[in-house]
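Bump. Still looking for UDP-N-acetylglucosamine 2-epimerase (non-hydrolyzing) structure tokens.
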Amino acid sequence: MTIFGTRPEAIKMAPLVKELEKNSNIVSKVCVTAQHREMLDQVLELFDIVPDYDLNIMKTKQTLTGITNRVLEGLEEVFEAEKPDMILVHGDTTTTFAGGLAAFYKQIKVGHVEAGLRTFDKYFPFPEEMNRKLTGAIADLHFAPTKGSKNNLLREGITEEDIYITGNTVIDAMKHTVESNYVFEHEELNYIDFDNKKVIMITAHRRENWGEGIENICDALNHIVAENKDVELVYLVHLNPVVKDVVFSKLEGKERIHLLPPLDTKQTHNLINKSFMVMTDSGGLQEEAPHLGKPVLVLRDVTERPEAVEAGTVKLVGTDVETIVREANALINNDEAYNEMSRSINPYGDGKASQRIVKAILKYFNVTSEKVEEF
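Sorry for the wait, here they are.
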């Protein structure tokens, strides 16, 4: 049983769901918590996934405690009905941790997709860092996207034979979403001159950036546009009022700044593909943009994805106004600096992660003895 609740999880679990469905040795069930409702549904529709169970837990102004409680109680009933041999959870959301805990209470095996990412600071990102660690303590199989992730797990005492380096499933997903002559559903994007303007795609919504962080990011964006007449910004503004109200108060109506709602997965991937670069505090975009040769400035002080920093595709810039402006201008005005980042090799996958995960599961249950060739 595959369990997920947010759009980022859904994007990365969708190709795995499809791979599970293809295998005659596996009965695949899907349970969504709908921790995020609208954005989750977009991905389900794109990949033609109809959940077997939908807990529909989302509430306005929901708290971490409330999400955890509703997932635990909802999954208890689902597990009683289905009695799965194993559940699969992804990454670092509250759904991930609560799903793993609910399975542990029923002594159901847990597979953790995108396991082993660490910042080694339990409050950054919050609550994601501890969600990952706690899920890792519960999991029976760990699907690490990179060697670095595997090494983190080994240092925490996880048995090596329970860890598989698979690459990241988001690269699998992008094989189905990016098109060379794509026309956007959001009409405003079709009028942007991607060929002659340096279009920067922005997302910033993480909890640790609420307040001063988001304010600083917006101030930096105003400076970048003012100083570079060939730049246009497309900011995909999170629906949470804590973020949205600040962004609109500082950026609405400004020339060459487009404030759009979050886009569905296909539009987002194609926007990355057409953009000059990406600025974000998101985790997933640090993997997706380099796959398409786009430099990423990460609006955080730490990242659980150090491989991209080491590979040169990503740079940590934090939320200091002066630093953001300086690093953005360096890429906008220096072809050599830009090319060095855009041509670096993405360390996150080859599009075969889902296949490796399915093979590892079959091996775990002694259905096959086939060796799993790691990424």
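The two ends are 24 Å apart (CA to CA).

Edit: fixed formatting.
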